Structure prediction request, 194 residues.
Amino acid sequence: MRKIGYVRVSSVDQNPARQIKQLEEIGMDILYQEKVSGATQDRPELKMMMSELQNGDTIYVTDLTRITRSTRDLFELVDQIKVKGANLKSLKDTWLDLSEENPYSHFLMTVMGGVNQLERDLIKMRQREGIELAKKEGKYKGRVKKYHKKHAGMKHAIELYEKGGMTVKQICEITNIPPASFYRGLREFKEKLN
Prediction:
C-alpha cells in the first residue's frame, strides 16, 4: 500500500514546486513528475506509473486536471486504476473516492469531469472570439513561425538547396529543419523571387 504522487505541468517553463510541496506534505513513497501537455496521451511518466501500479496503491494528484484533460480520459484512467486494485485521490477534488463501489462517486466523477471539460471548452471559445476580434481590428498577426526567412538554419538550408548536390533529406538533417518547414520556407523564398 504505497502513496504515489503524480505531478504534471504543461510546459518546461512552468514550475511544479507547488504541486510537489502539497504532495510531500502528506508523505509520498514515490513521486512521478513530468513537463508535458495533458492534452497528449504520450506521457512517459504517467505510462510508467500505471505500469508499476500495484494492488492497494493510491495515486495522489493536487487536482484532476494534472492527470487527465478530458472526461473520456478520466474514465479510461479510472478503469485502469480499478483493474489494478488501486485508488486515485485528488487533494482539490475531494469528492473522488474509488476505494469502494459507490454510485454517487461515479455520478460526481461524470458531472465534475463534464464541468472541467466545459470550462476548457469555454476558455478555447473565448480565445477564438478574441482572435477573431483582433483580426477584424488588424491587431492579430498569428503565431510567429519558428522557421522564418531570417532563421539561421532556414537560410543555410536554402543556400545548400541552391548550391545543389544534396537531397532535401540531407539538407534537413544538417540544418535540423523539419522537411515540411523546409518546403514551406523554400516555397516562400521562390515566391519572393518571382
Notes: The domain at 3-116 is CATH 3.40.50.1390 (Rossmann fold). The radius of gyration is 23 Å. The chain has seven helices and four strands.
